[in-house]
Design a protein that fits this description.
The protein has two helices and 20 strands. It has two domains: 48 residues; 212 residues, 7 Propeller (Methylamine Dehydrogenase, Chain H), CATH 2.130.10. The longest helix has 24 residues. It is an alpha+beta fold.
Length: 266
């Protein structure tokens, strides 16, 4: 009984640790323009490089728990473990249409398909198209807004576009990005303050989403020649659900009680 309780507690703690594992939370993952010799950078929100994956093309990035999806060929790529920055032989995904940036929401990849002017909803396991929505411009960057909607960047007949699509997948707001003169690339959304990080040539901008948006500043990348097609914000993992906390507390009390009984018997 003692070993079973201790094993159960250890298992629950291990599962919780796995869900919560995030060595560098609230940071950015910054891709490139598909140049194989370029690295993927993990930076602070002010541009300090923390880690990197060398020699890896990345025209799109998405994060699901501790998995980093890297679109390296416009048709898919490898899945990296965010703790170890390694990928195994079977850690791969594919996309139904030629695409750039990605984001993860509701168990699916949402992908900026520049070949069809759509945001494709893709099954991350099979690579099958599961839905999506059309945009009236060529999409380059996409990120979730944390509430069921999306921000999409790209360019159309009137120039560059940064547009919000609500939870019904309808356009309802544009951001004025006239301060960015070298085009709009990948996007990352910070749920702490509802701000956007926007990739461009050799630089990442930071914008708020109030009204038509405001430029909050930028940081330059080590390689000024790389255009940022892939970008994602790595938000801190959520706290455990209340039921998990109760279960952990119950197991802890049970183990403590068993230890007291064993001590008394001695």
């Amino acid at each position: 009984m003692k070993n079973q309780l201790i094993g159960l507690a250890a298992g629950i703690l291990m599962c919780t640790a796995t869900v919560m594992a995030d060595t560098f939370p609230n940071t950015l993952w910054v891709g490139n323009d598909g140049t194989a010799a370029a690295p993927i950078l993990n930076t602070t929100t002010t541009g300090v490089v923390l880690r990197q994956i060398d020699n890896t093309a990345a025209v799109g990035l998405a994060i699901d728990s501790n998995k980093l999806y890297v679109n390296s060929t416009t048709s898919g790529g490898n899945i990296y473990n965010l703790d170890t920055l390694t990928t195994g032989p079977g850690d791969m995904f594919s996309l139904p249409n030629p695409s750039f940036d990605l984001t993860f929401s509701g168990g699916f990849l949402w992908v900026a398909s520049f070949s069809t002017n759509t945001i494709d909803k893709v099954d991350p396991v099979t690579g099958a198209l599961a839905g999506g929505f059309a945009v009236d411009f060529i999409p380059i960057g996409v990120t979730t807004d944390g509430a069921g909607g999306f921000w999409v960047s790209g360019f159309g007949n009137a120039g560059q576009v940064l547009r919000h699509f609500n939870a019904n997948l309808q356009p309802d707001a544009d951001i004025d990005t006239s301060d960015i003169v070298d085009g709009l690339g990948g996007l990352g959304f910070d749920p702490r303050d509802n701000t956007l990080f926007i990739g461009t040539l050799g630089r990442v901008y930071h914008y708020d989403t109030i009204g038509t948006g405001h430029d909050l500043g930028f940081f330059d990348l080590p390689d000024s020649t790389q255009f940022v097609d892939g970008l994602e914000f790595d938000a801190a993992a959520p706290v455990p659900e209340p039921t998990s906390i109760v279960l952990l507390g119950t197991v802890a009390l049970a183990v403590a009680g068993l230890r007291r009984r064993l001590h008394v018997r001695r």
